[in-house]
Amino acid sequence: MVAPATLRVVRCGGSTLHGARAVFSADSKQVGPCPEPVFLWSDTFQLVSVKLTKAAGQDLEAKELSVVLHGVGASPKSIAFGREGEYVASVKDLNLQVYFFKQKQLNRFSLSAVKTKGGNNHFTCVACHPTEDCIATGHADGKIRLWRNFYHKKEYTFSTLHWHHDTVMDLAFSIEGTSLLSGGVESVLVLWHNGSDCRKDFLPRLGSPIEYISMSSDGALCCTLHTDNRITIINSNLRFSKCIQGLIKTMDVKTGLVVDPRTKALVLNGEPGHLQFYCLQSDQQLFSLDIVQRQYIHQAGLKQTDLVKVAFSAQGKWLATVEERDEVTDPELQLKLWFYDEETQSFKLNTRINMPHEDHVTDMCFRDMDELEDDSLILVTAGRDCVFKVWVMVEDTDPEGKYAQQSVSWNCDFVGSYHNYQATNCCFSEDGSVLAVSFEETVTVWDSVTWDLKCTFCHPPGKIRNICFGRLTCSKYLIGATDHGFLCCWNLLSCALEWSAHLNILVLQPDPLSEYIAAVSWLSKESSLFVFKPNEPRPIYIQRNLCKEKIQLAAFIPRDEPETVGSEKYLWLRRSQLFFLTDTQELMTLSTKSLEERLTPSSKQLAVEESLPVTPFSLLLGKHRCQQSQQDIDLGKRVVQNKHEQDSPAVKELLHTPAHVLPSASFLCPIFINSLLISKENKSAEVAADEVEMESEKAEDESDEERDITEMEQEDTSPMELLGEMTCKLSKSQEKELRKIRKTDYSWISAF
């Protein structure tokens, strides 16, 4: 019997991986000689055979379970089915196990990699040849071993392929079995021809380590999944085809969640040494900015420069970044100031400052004063060297220096400290008049003009973890959270504690467009959300058990248009939307709308072209379209255009939605066809209008004939007038016929 545990399902023949229940689709089929059982492995590291019964429903409940293998790996890469499902191979640690199915009988055979010579022989992945009795295994030392003749316990053989310098993360045979694909931390896809170490091809610079490799059923395409949450589609000739990239997954988000004021994109760590600008509406990366500007070397244990702090000015014209590399003696630090260039639509490096602090930089912020940003922009950095520094812009006084083409640069203007305590956090008030800097257990408030210390706040025990100012009507309050589980609110006018609450707050995030502040607590292995105003000690909104993961970061993203909310407790979501990032790097948000309501305007949300910078090709294409539309107007073609040739929502959604998130064609086809149909009501109205027009024309023709007869009877037909020069006048009926001829389109003659 199988011990009760969550189950992950995989069908023999390379089927998909299901969720955490022993319930499978009714169309589950196995490729091979044993069509009845479905194989799955449990969290107790057992490979299990499940016998499915025939039923009319879509879901079946598995009742008969039998254990096939013990001690299998927890990853799907540790199990592979052999030729037509005749055997199954499993790897874990130093063991390779091969089991054969013959007439529903199981024969057990195991190999130990301890017998091999040299290197780290731990197995990492396994793949089976589709047509031959051959098993390929990947190892932690970068070697690939091809096992043959494993039907015999002592006469087995294996050959070795070696190119990877580190762990082989996945293997996959081609559909015909003529080649083998391998990938690892080098971000290079290796194609081995016919199992030969001499014949191999490479596809380098794929961006991040390759975690999974999969082949399409027809063998035309190969798909690689990378550790940074990227999917790369590659042609069979090892040519890059397409990349599907959403939010880049990194080892650690040290920069926090920052909002770009210009694009409203979420900015955080991306590729090593890069900043990613991630559009939440389209679920796509807008662009990536190389901050470190050094080649990243994928090698375990190697200390490399990393991006740790990011801050934007209020208008998004200036960007400040801090990069560091940990050394045994002294860390290497660099503070960089970037200016946004409107011509190139990108950030350019303006100032580089080596070692802005003697120890790690703990926090950084700009003074948010929109009206004075260009004149008195201030940057403050806090460090573990027990000081905070104020950086200001100055005019470049060295026209022949290295930065002769730059008009401004950044210099240190003031250095502040408090009792030799480490500076941990810093932030400006909404009007920029005061600066708050936390030094371990104490919060200090400084005048941003004279840099005089105005007052201090303290709430022992515990060091200050987060601080922020209130906004709008609550701008006189200062909020702080300690690592001993206290949330405090101080009044800046009375210099006294307004209120405090016993909460273990990990994240404290104010909304830039309202008075609301979001606080996330962690207690009893669950995260809870509290939304409050500083002038009201009672929370406005409480969400217990928000998620089981620990929420590390949060950010308010301004909405394009205020959202209509039906309840007062959701008013804090009207102008901004709150996003969370957990310790497992899952990005979550809160919404008052249901899933169906949020998916309805997908064409509007996924229109990435509106937010991306204009390219020269798009400008040329737009100019061509304008010229074509002008020609259509001149030729009068718009008169005969179909009235229903307007912007259809179905067509917009089909064209603007990325291909990887589109539903099936069978679902889209009826919607598209229905959008092109003409309703009976519109058609009958048009027919009636045509009939009325024909009747009016007929009546007008009869009246014109009567007038012509009357005019002919009243005409003076003297010979002198007939012989003289006269201007010929057309009747109304003739003018009408002439107008009809003028409206006729003769542009087709130009083709001849």
Automatic annotation (TrEMBL):
SUPFAM superfamilies: WD40 repeat-like
Domain of life where this protein originates: Eukaryota
Keyword Cell division: no
GO cellular component terms given for this protein: small-subunit processome
Region (Disordered): 688-722
Keywords: Nucleus, Repeat, Ribosome biogenesis, rRNA processing, Transcription, WD repeat
Ranges occupied by WD repeats: 116-147, 161-192
GO MF entries: RNA binding
GO BP, one annotated term: rRNA processing
PROSITE patterns (alphabetical): WD_REPEATS_2
Comp. bias intervals (Acidic residues): 688-718
Pfam families per record: Beta-prop_WDR75_1st, Beta-prop_WDR75_2nd
Limits of the WD repeat-containing protein 75 second beta-propeller domain: 257-585
Compartments where found: Nucleus, Nucleolus
Name this protein carries in UniProt: WD repeat domain 75
The species this protein was found in: Falco tinnunculus (Common kestrel)
